[in-house]
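Appendix B. One record, verbatim.
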Amino acid sequence: MLEREIQEEQRYIYVLLSRTHTVPARLIRMYTKEPYSHASIALDMELRNLYSFARKHIHNPFDCGFIEEDIEKGIFGKDKNVYCSVYEVPVTEEQYRHLKEELDVFIKNREDYRYNYTGLVGVMFGKNVEDGKHFFCSQFVSYVFNKSGILLHSKKSGLTRPYDFHIQLKDRQIYKGKLSEYRMFLKKTRSCLSDYLGEGYPRAM
């Protein structure tokens, strides 16, 4: 549910919710009883510009912070059975620009940010823990949306869980299945649309 009508040129932001089989992910799902344990935000449908807060090195679950994710490498690349959902969020050109600027701040100052372990525990007890430098994955995604003027829900960023995005964006879901098969799905979808609509199909997927 977007708070403002989209009146300018249409752009899109993408939310990836995923379910890995790591020990931390299993513990999170055990507590929440929800299907997803991780949230990421992307600037493109192919998820090539994908960002979140998670482990920086595949074999060290304790060294976590802001990262640029790759669905074909790291945890995602190692586990071909990662289940996911992808959502397409329509935004204005101005909102898109603001969100990209917010992400650029994280990219340029990545070493200043840490994982919000305290906040992760706090959300389990309904306590919002925010300081602008520590984030867990869904808190980060919510924070970037809010700072860009895109209000997806009324929850504070520090109380946002991955499944909250599904609740608000379920009508915007464009894919559900194995993450390892996502880009093949896009390729097939594009091919079908091109055959149906012709070479003049206006929006690249």
